[in-house]
Amino acid sequence: MFNFFTRQRNRSRAGVGGISSPPTGNDRRIHVDLSHLQSLEDAAESLNLLPRQPTRSVLAGRHASRLRGRGLNFEELREYRPSDDVRAIDWKVTARTGEPHVRVYTEERDRPTLIVVDQRMSMYFGTRFAMKSVTAAETATLAAFAVLSQGDRVGGIVIRDDGLFSQRPKRCRTALTRFLSELARANCALHADAPPATPTSLDTVLQAVANIARRDHLILLISDFDVIGPASDRLLAGLARRNDVILMPVSDPSGEVMPKGFVSAISDGDQQATLDTNIGDIHTAMNRLNRERRAAIERWQHHYGIPLASLSAGAETLPQLHRLLGLACPLNRRTAGAE
User: Fold this and answer.
1) How far apart are alpha carbons 85 and 164 in whole angstroms?
2) In what order do the strands lie in the sheet with 154-160?
3) pLDDT band at 273 (very low <50, low <70, confident <90, very high)
4) Residue 1, in any domain of the structure
């Protein structure tokens, strides 16, 4: 059993006390480095983030938007030809000139994707398999490699407590490596003895997203959605009107409902503290925070029709993405073929 609890905002917002320690060794359940993130490239080939989704994908569900796919670039305005689609006729120009004219478009080479991944201290928490920050980092990396392999531009925003790193979408491996390097750096900087800092608000994050993704982007928001601001609803609604937004909330199994009477020794393998929900203030505070966060995410899903792809730090990342996208696990396909 892997248990870890951090000293900073996870503790202070829920009223939990404890002892902390710095990052631990090379345990990839706690921290991920650039080499580990780069090693996920082959696994990403099994993912599909194209507009046409399997029927079992959450992106084809009742609350999913119809992904726009690749956009169109205006090429020319010319006279109508018998082979032209009448739907392309520009009626204003036709009326002005007295001759039928059509607008000709060509398909854009790609659809830009912006991956927003949370690496704040609130993500440095895990009770079963891995830290939420690790699950988020692996998800962002797998999605980035999948997008680049399908020929689309990919960029990203890494959310830290002390600010943001932004990389505009590019069809460039060098730019992707820069994004992954910053992601790994932010992940490894998380530790229980980090100095206190005011966490970056979701308002700041969404405004930064809006500055990059003005329209027709695919936006993946991978976060625990802590520190929702007064403008978060308005900013998210605006993004959803002009882009395809997918919410990917990352939670820990303990975050659903913290049971009364839950007592656990929590440790990073070196130092230890005790989490005791028999203490009324702790139990009440933790469940209140969990309820408020879930309610906000569900409101966004229903009001704005934003697809929801929930992730858990209590299980491996890749199989969860296969399930969410309605894809068969590669291992299962090989097994089925052998039979």
Assistant:
1) 46
2) 163-170, 154-160, 113-118, 218-223, 244-251, 311-312
3) low
4) no
CATH of the domain at 260: 3.40.50.410
CA distance 229 to 201: 6
Is 85 found in the same domain as 207? Answer: no
Same domain, 125 and 220: yes
3 found inside a domain: no
Those residues with Cβ within 8 angstroms of residue 286's Cβ, 6 or more apart along the chain or in another chain: 14, 16, 258, 277
Q: Is the dihedral of CA 150, 106, 305, 155 positive or negative?
A: positive
Task: Tell me which of 48-57, 123-132, 272-281 is least confident.
Answer: 272-281
Locate the DSSP E strands across 181-226: 218-223
Overall average pLDDT of the 214-237 stretch: 93
Helices 317-324, 132-149: crossing angle, 10 deg rounding: 60
Structural domains in the chain (count): 2
Q: Which residue has the tokens 């900087």?
A: 189
pTM confidence score: 0.74
pLDDT value at 333 more than 50? no
Domain span including residue 329? 9-65+110-338
Q: What percentage of the chain has pLDDT greater than the value 70?
A: 73
